[in-house]
Fold each of these.
Amino acid sequence: MSQKILEYPMSTFPVINPATEQHLADVHDATSQDWMQALSDAVTAGQSWSQVTPRQRATVLNDIFAAVAEREDDFATTMTKEMGKPLREARGEVAYGNEYFRWFAEEAVRIDGRLAQSPAGVGTILVTHEPVGPVLAITPWNFPLAMATRKIAPALAAGCSIIVKPAQETPLTMVLLGEVIAEVLRKHNIDEKLVQVITTSHASDMSKELMADPRLRKVTFTGSTGVGRHLVRQSADNLQRTSMELGGNAPFVVAEDADLDLVLTCALQAKMRNGGEACIAANRFLVASSIEEEFTKRLTEHMEGVVMGDGMDDATTLGPIITKKQRDGIAELVDDAVSKGAQVLTGGTIPEGKGFFYPATVLTKLPKDARILSEEIFGPVATVTTFDSLDEGIAMANDTEFGLAAYGFSENIHTAQKLAKELKAGMVGINRGAISDPAAPFGGIKQSGFGREGGSEGIEEYLDIKYIALQ
C-alpha cells in the first residue's frame, strides 16, 4: 500500500484548567508517523490477543478494574483539574466508568454462537463470532474516563486491539488510564500496544489517514452529530464498522399527576449532572400547564441554591464550562431566547473573573423559534414550556431531529406506559433522572447515531459474525 505520510513539526499542546485558566501541562502532539506506527502495532498486538482465551481476557479486565479502583483519587483529581467538574462528581465518574471493565470481563466469557440443523436437511448451520480487528476510539471531553472505558472494555473483551484519541481539552485522564492499563498488561506478559493512547491536535488528519488504511476495521465515536456524519462518510471506502453516539436534545415530560418531589430530584439529576455538559442532559422541560407554576417556582429555588466554583472546592456543586468558546455558545443561546421574549428567572449572565463559568439558569415563556429549544445546550440552562394535553406534550417532545434520551414522569401506570411507548428515543427514563448503567445498552436513534455501548449488546459492536456450513 502506498500512502503519503503527513509531516508536522515536533510539538506539544497545552492543557488548561477551565476553573482558573491556569496551565496544567503540555502533552505530546502526535503526528502522522505516531498514529500510523500505532496502527501497525495494533495489528500485531491484536493478532496475539485474539488468540487469548475468553477466561484469560476476563482476568485481565478484572485486574484493570482493580488497578483503576486503587487510583481513584488520582483519576478524580486529574479529571477535575482538566475538565472542571466537582471532585465528588469526578469520583462518581471513576466508579461508573471503571464498572465497564468489570461488566465486560463478565461478558467476555459469554460470547455465544448457534448450532442448528438446516431446515432443508442439507447439513448443519454453525454461527460463531470473531474479533472485528483493530479499533479507533475517538472520545469527548465531558466524561474523559467513562466515554473511553465503555469503548476499551468491550473491545478487549471481544479480542480487539484499540487506539484511543482523547479530546484535546482533556487528555490527561486518558494518558493516566493508558499508563494503568499498560502496567496490568505487562504483569500478564501481554503486548502493551494492545491499548494505545494518541494525543494530538490534528484529530481530523488522524482519523482521515487511519480510516484510509484497510487494516483499521472499526471506528467508535462519541461527539457531535456533525463530526459523526463526517466520520461515517469517511468510513465508506473501506467499509469500516462504525458506532456513533452523537448529539441529543432530551425532553423531560412532566404529566399533571406526577410526584413533584420526585420530579424535582430527577430534574436536577438530568439537568445538572456534569454541569449540564452531558449528551443525555434534559434540554427541554415540558410541563403540564396545570402544574407549571409550582414546578417552575421550585425548580428555580433549587437552581438558585447551586454553588458555582472551582471543582476542587468541597462546597462547589457547579464547576466551569470546558472552554471559553463553549461558555460563550451557551450565552448566545440564552441571549437569543431572551431577545425573542423569553423570561430569565435566575442566572443568564456570564460572571466576572477568571474561569469559564456560566450560572445555573432557568428560562420560561420561550418562543417556538428560540434556538435553545432545537439546539443542544450542553450547559446548566433549564428551559420550561407547557402543554395542555399529554398528546401535545409528547408531540412537542418528539419534535426534534435527535433521539438519544427522553424522560417522562407520571404516577399513573397507563400514562407512564404511554410515555415509555411514544417518546421517540433510544433511551427513555420513566420516573428516573439518572439512566446510564453499564449493564444497559446506551445509544440513540435518528440524528443521535447508532450502535450501543454497555449491556450484553455492547460487545456485539466489536464482533464479526461467521457462518460455517457443516456437512
Amino acid sequence: MLLVLAAAATCIYFKNRSYISALQSLASEGITTANYNELPEIIKKLPITKKVFSTENYPALYGDDKVAKISRINGSASVALSFKSHSPDPEKRSSVVYFNLNSETNMAGMFLFTSVEVRGGIVGQGHQGSRVFLELHDANGKAMYGPHIRIPQEGKKIHIVMRPTVSEPMPTGSFQNNFDLTRVVKIGLRFALGNSVNSFPANGRLYIEDILAITNTELIASLLPKPDNRRVTQDTINLTYQYRKLKWKTEKKNFFVGINYPWHYYGMDVGQNPYGQPENAGWSANQEKLIADFEMFKESGIDIVRIYIFFDLRTGLTYQDGKLLAFDKYVWRDIESIFVAAHKTDMKIIPVLFDFGVADGQGKDNGSGEHPELLFFQDKHNFLAYLMRSTLQAMNAWNEKYGEPVFAVELMNEPENMAMLIIPGYFEALKNWLKDLINIIHNETSFKVTLGSYSIVDMQKWWKDLDIDAWQFHFYRYMAAEHEQNPIDLRREKVDLSGPVFAGEYEPEDIVKNLKALKENGYGGIIFWAWNTNDGFKLESSERFKEISDWILNEKSPKNKTGKEAK
C-alpha cells in the first residue's frame, strides 16, 4: 500500500512544475527518479519545518521487550531488535520505540516525516514483508497509528509520512475513538514483522533519522492542484431504485462463504496487454481457465467470487490527441467473459470496478496505473458520464442475459487507502466521485452497490452518507491490535449501519473459528482472501482451502438442513 508526501511534492512541484512526477510513492517500490533521495534535505530546508526528535537525543528513546539495544551510529538512532519465536499474535510480532514530548502538543495541521533503514533477518519479502509506521499517544492513553509502510528490501532507505487527522481517512492508518489530537504526549515508531518472516530467532536493526514536523498542511494543500469538487450527476428521487430496495429487504438472506479470485495477471485481465504481446491476455483469452476455476469453486461449496475489473487502470484506455476517447476493444469482451463463466457455473460474483491504486501516488514510470485526473480533475466528467455509464449499461444487459449472477457491484477496493487522500481536500472530492458513480449504477442498472472498506471501523466512520446497499469490511489479524472493533467480538446489531453487512476480505487463518463467529454474530457472509495471490495468503491447493470447503459442504449437507451447527 503506497503513500504520497504532499509537503515534499510541493517542493518538487516548484522545482519542476510537474505534480504527477512529484506525487510519487513513499513506500514499497520506492521512486524511480532522483526526487526520492532528495526528499529529506528538501523538507529540512522548508521554513515551516521543525525538528520533533533529534537522533542526538537517542538516550531518550525507550522500547518494549523486543528492543535489545539503542545507540547512535553514523548520525542515526540504531535500534537492535530481536524476535525470539514465531507467533501469530500481532502484538508479539511487532516492536516499538517511544520518546516522550516535553508537554502536551497539538499535532493538528501537521505532516510528520522521518526516514528509516532496516537491516538483518527481519525484513521479509513481497506483499507480506515487514512494515514500519509512526504512532501517536494522547494524554488519555488513546492511540493513533500512521500509514503502514512496507520495507521493500534490506538496507533501502524509506521515507515515512503521517498527516495526523481525525476528520478524514489516513491511508492504511487508524485511530482509537476519542483520540485527542491536541494533547499528544508520546510519539513512537513501530516495526511490524511480516508474515513472510518465519526463521527464528529473527534479529535486525532499525536506523532512524530525525523526526520532522511540517507545520502548515493548509499551506501545502493550497500550493498543490485543487481537486474538482463539482458533481457529474444530480441527486434526485429514484422511485425505481426505492422499489428495488423494498424488494431486496424481502430476500432470503443465508450466510454465504466466498473467495477472492482477484486476478489472473494483476492489472491486465480487462483490456489490452499493457506490456506488449500477446495483445489480448485478458479474460476473453483465458475463458476456459476462468470457467474451470469457477466450476471447482462451485463443487467446493463456494457461493460468491469477488473479482477485479479495472484495477488501477494501467490498461483499457484509448486516447486521441492526448484526450481520453474510450475503452479499448478488449475491455467489454473481457468483462463479458466473467459473466459467461458465472452463468455456466451458476456462480454469484462481485465485480470490483476499481482499486485504490488508481491514485496511489506510485506514478506510471514503473508500469503501474496512475490516473488521478479521472477522479479528481476535469477528465472525470467524460470518464463517468460516457465511458463508465455505457460500460455499466452493458454489464446490466449481460447480467440479464446470463441469469443475473451479480450479487453486487463494488465501487472500489479500500478507497481509504488511496494515497492522494493525504492531501487536505481530496477526501471530499473522492466522496463526490463515488456518489456520482453510485447514481449512475442506481439509475442505469438494477445492481446493488457495495464498497470494499478497509476495516469495520472505517466502514462506519467514513461512508454513512453514501447509498450503499450491502456494506462490506475487510479484516486481517493485525487490525485486532489497532482497532477497537473487530468482527469476532462485535455483533452485527452493534454495527451502526442499516442493511446487509459482510466481510469482503478476510485473512484465512483459524478458518472454522472465524466462520462460526461471523455467522453467529449475524453477518451476511465472509469472503476469504485469496485464491491466486503471492502474498502469503494463497489458498490455491492449500489445506486452508480444504478446511473452508469442508465446513461449507458440512453446513449444506442434508443433516444440517435443520440448522444443526457444523463441526
Amino acid sequence: MTLGHLLLSLPFFLGGGIIAGWYLCRRLDLALFAGVLTLFLVFRFAKERRKALGLLGFLFLGFLLGASEGRVQTHHRQIFHAYRGQPVSLLGTVLETPAPWRNGVRFLLRVEELAGEKLTVQPRLEVFLSQVADYDYGQRLALRGRFFGDEVKPGSAWARERVVGGLSVAGEVKEQGRGQVSPLGRWVNICQRKLLAVGKATLPPPEATILHGMLLGRREPALSTYTFERVGVAHLLSVSGLHLTFWLGLFWGLGKIFHLPDRVLGLLAIPVVTLFVLVAGGGAPALRAGTMTLLALFGELTQRRSRGPLLLAVAAAVILVLRPLDGFALGFWLSFMACAGLIIVYPRWEEALAVYPWFTKTRPFFLSLAAQLMVAPLLAKFYGGVSLIAPLANLLLVPLGGLAVQIGLVAAVCGLICLPLARLLNAGNTVILRVFRQAITFLAKMPGYLSFPPWPWLAVGVCYGVIAVLTWGLTVNPVTKKRRLPLFYILLVLALIGLLIIGYYLSRDLAPHLQIVFFDVGQGDAALITAPGGFHILIDGGEAAAYNREIAPYLQAQGIRELDLVVLTHAHEDHLGGIVRLLEDGRFKVNRILESGFPHTTQLYQRFLQLVLDKEILLQQGVRGTRLQVGDLQGLVLNPPASYLTGVAGELNNNSLALLLDYRSVRILLTGDVEALGEAAILSAYADSLRANLLKVAHHGSATGTGTKWLEKVRPELAVISVGAGNPFGHPGGVVLSRLRQAGVKIYRTDQAGRLTFTIRPGRAGKPAQIWVEKEAKR
C-alpha cells in the first residue's frame, strides 16, 4: 500500500470510527471487544502491519471523536430533561447574529445559568423569540421560556452545532451585559453584520436575500430553496468552492491590477481563504473548499503539486476531525461528490474525448454534467428527484450568480467606507440579481424535474458502479486494462439502465394503491395521503416542533418536494403550527390550501394568512357539500355548515373541517376536533351516508365526541387516535375507547405505536379491498 492509497483510505477509516463511536458511546464494553479483535486480526493476517496500524489509529481517533460527541449530547440533554415542555428561566450568551423567524428572530445561546443555578457544563440552545430584536454576538441575556426538542439525529443541524434543543421565549428578555467569547469570533461576527447591513441598505429585500444566501450562505425565510433545488443549483446557496472561486477571482484580479507576482499573491491568498471559511460559518462545504485551496496553494508555493483525489481525501479528513458529525450530513456528501465529478470523472472524459473537435466547444457543459452526474444518485436517494436541466441551468446561472456575488462583495467592502459608492455598485447589481431571480423562476416552471420514490442504497451503489464503468471504459477496459470499451458495450449498458427504469415505472402503474401516514406528532394531528399518480395531501401539521421533528424529515426522506393540497381542519396550534412552519420553511411547494374559513384572531392564524398571501398560494374555503378530487381520490366536506355553528361551546372545534374520502369504494373519514355538537350536525345532514372503513377519531379521543350514534352510522373497521403520550387532558377518554371496542373497531394509537402507515389496495375480481398497517416502533 503506497502513501497515496493510505491517504485516500484515511477519511473512510476516520468516518467509520466516528459512526461507531456515536452509536457505541454507551456500550464501551462492546467497543473494547471489537478493538481487541481487530488488533488480533491485524497482527495475525496483515502483511504491512505499520500501515495497517496507522489506519487503525485513525479508526480509533474517529471512534473517540464520535463517542465524545455522543456523550456530550447525552450529558447536555440530561441537564434539560426535567424541564422538557415546562417554563424555565435561564441566563446565557448569544453566539450568532439573530436570523429572521416568523415575526421575530432565532439565534443560538450558550446557557450559563439554569433556574438560578450556574452550570459547569454549558449546553447550547436555539432560541425562538416572537418579536424582532437585534442582539450582538457575545451579549448576555436573561430569558424565560419553554424548552422543547427530542433526541437529535447525528446528521441534523442541531447535532452538528451541539445544540440540544429549542427554547420558545415567553415574556420579557433582559440584557445582562456581555459574556465571554473569543475575540476572533467577535471580529468575524462584526464582519458578517457589516456585510449584511450594507446589502440591506443598498438592495431591495428580494435581491438582498438572494445575495446574502449566495455570498454568506445565509438562509432567510423569504428565500425559498425549492426553486433552486428544482433547477439543480441549490449549491449556489451552500457556500463552497464555487463561492471561494468568486472571492479568489476578485482578489487575484485586483492583485494583477497592481502587478503583484503570483508567489506574493499565493501568500496573500492564505488569509483571504481563512477569512472566507470563517465568515461563511465554517460548514462542511466551506471547510472542504478552504482546505483544498490551502493545500493547493502550499503545493504551488513549495512546487510540490498534489493530485486532486488526495486533496479531496485530506480535506475530508480535516473536516471530520474539526466537525465529526458532518460526516452524517447530506451536504457533506453532496459537496464531495460534486468535487469528485470535477477532479476525477471530468479529466477522464477530457482524456478520451479531447480528440473530437466538438468537445472543445462543449467543455463547460461536460464540466457541469460531471458534477451533476455524481450528485444525482444521492439526490435520488434523499430527495426522490433529479433535475434534467441542471447542467444547462448551471451554465447560465453560475456565471450570472458569480458576477452578482463579486459585485456584491466589492459593494459590501466599499460600503464599509463609503455607502453611496456601494449604492452605485448595487444599483447595477440589482438588475443582475433580478434577472437571476427571474431566470431561476422561469427554469423552475419548465418540465425538467424528474420525480420518483427515493432510491434504495442498492440502486445508488449500482448507479455509481455504472458511472465508474462508463467513465473509465472510455479510456481503458476495466477488465483487460489494455483498451477502452467498444461503443457497443457502452450503449448496451445504457439500454439496460433504460429498460430497468421503464420496468420500474410500469410496475408502479400496474399496482396502484393509496397510502395514509398518521404522524406521531404528540398531542396534535398530522396525516399525509399519497394517491396513485404521485399526488400528496397533508391534513393538518401538528405543532411547529413536530413539523421539524417528524413531518419535514419524512417528506424529505420520501423525496416529496410538492404538496398538491394542504387541508387545515381548524386553527388550533396543535393542528396549524406545523403548517405555518411548512410555509416558512420553503423547501416544499404547496399548490393549494383548503380550510373552513371559520374566523380566528390568534397571531398564529394571522401569520398563516399572511404567508399564504405572500407565497400566492390558492386558498379555498371548504364547507359542507364542497367536493374535491385529487387523482383517483374523491373527497366530500361534511363540516362545517356554510352558516357555521356559532354561539355554542367549543366553536372552533365544532367547526372543524371534516372530510370523507373515497378511493375506489374504500372510505376514510377525517374529523379534525369535532365534538358532540359537530357530530350531531353531520348526522342530521348525512345520516346514512357516513359509512367508512377507516375513522380518524376526533379530538384525540376526547370524551366530548365519538358518541354511540356516531359510531352506529360510521361503522368503522379501523380507527386511529392521534394523541400524545402522558398528555394532561386524559386523552383518549376511557368511555371513547370502550365505545370503539364495543363496536368491534380495531384501534391504533400514535402514542403507543408511533407513526402509523396504512396502505390501501382496492379489491379486484370481486375480492374485498386490502388494508395493511405498518407501525413505527416508539423510541
